[in-house]
Write a structure and sequence with these properties.
Strand content: 15-25%
Structural class: alpha/beta
Low-confidence stretches: 1-9, 183-194
Number of helices: 14
Helix content: 25-40%
Number of strands: 12
Largest sheet: 7 strands, mixed
Oligomer: single chain
Distance between the termini: 46 Å
Length: about 325
């Protein structure tokens, strides 16, 4: 029973009704500060450089990697990642220390994982953790690179362009793995890989960490690298999650948007916001729901109501 409870907590659960939680929160005077409209200048703002530095410091503080656990639940939440064809390409956006990449590389499929993050500290840690966890054949399928996709988009070699792929197939669409990742391949067969688009994009607890005004562009960038019929897998913080209600009013930097004491930020999504962002970028919605979990603190025995948003979206086929 404990095992089943743990699995449910990890990826999917409806321990409580989100609409009932909404009614409870919105009728409680203690939480009114989270419901008020936000006026520019009410909270602390940070430049892009400051935000990048905040994430660098975050990963330095958590350099042991124990802060993040391998996200094995993702292969159950998004089974396509574990059953895709050999050679399929996955782009992990906001890879952190590699907790998502570890789960994907450890699955049955032999896909290639491209992983990016705005933090050079995160990229260095991801390389280290993957190298320590897996054999050479697994490491050769892991290609991390630094990139702030919300600001600059993705590198041109990753963008899907059908005309360009046909024009340069077998030539300039070949990218050297060692140039991307800094990892030294062990055979000539793994030195280069054909890119020009990916079959899957994972956006796991990443979108909430960027400023809201950059989110529409960020989703469009994800759309640009997917091949027709490709899938975007989304999981992030949901509206009225327990961690949202812990923020103080002076930590607000936007509507449903907060900045932690360490300079990193967090946004809390409702389904309508994600639906609007993805549909305006051109995605078709396949799945979108709240995951509502009663999580028990082992130290004090208190139950916390956690809310996450699960989504699966598809780029239309040609």
């Amino acid at each position: 029973m404990k095992m089943r409870s743990c699995v449910a907590e990890s990826y999917h659960s409806r321990d409580f009704d989100w609409d009932e939680l909404k009614q409870e929160i919105e009728s409680d005077p203690c939480f009114q500060c989270h419901l008020l409209p936000y006026k520019d200048g009410d909270g602390e703002q940070a430049s892009q450089l400051q935000q990048e530095e905040a994430w660098n410091k975050f990963y330095v503080r958590h350099s042991t990697g124990k802060f993040f656990k391998e996200r094995r639940y993702l292969l159950k939440e998004f089974p396509e990642l574990g059953s895709c064809q050999e050679g399929s390409r996955v782009l992990e956006v906001g890879c952190g220390n590699g907790s998502t990449a570890l789960a994907i590389l450890g699955g049955k499929s032999k896909c290639v994982v491209y992983a990016c993050d705005c933090s050079n500290e995160a990229i260095a840690k991801a390389k280290e953790i993957v190298a320590a966890a897996y054999s050479t054949c697994h490491r050769d399928r892991f290609c991390p690179f630094q990139c702030d996709f919300s600001k600059d988009g993705f590198p041109s070699w990753l963008i899907y362009n059908d005309k360009e792929l046909q024009k340069h197939q077998g030539d300039s669409s070949i990218v050297n793995i060692s140039e991307i990742s800094g990892l030294e391949p062990t055979s000539s067969e793994t030195r280069c890989c054909y890119v020009g688009g990916v079959e899957f994009v994972t956006l796991i607890f990443t979108l909430s960490a960027i400023p809201y005004e950059r989110m529409p562009g960020a989703i469009r960038h994800c759309f640009s690298v997917l091949k027709p019929g490709g899938l975007l897998f989304f999981r992030d913080y949901g509206l009225y999650d327990m961690t949202m209600l812990r923020f103080k009013s002076d930590q607000r930097v936007g509507f449903r948007e907060y900045m932690r004491s360490d300079g990193t930020r967090s946004y809390f999504f409702c389904l309508d916001t994600i639906r609007a962002l993805t549909s305006s970028a051109g995605f078709n919605e396949l799945e979108l729901e709240y995951c509502c979990v009663n999580s028990t603190n082992r130290k004090n025995g208190k139950t916390m109501k956690r809310v996450w948003v699960h989504g699966k979206f598809q780029k239309p086929a040609l």
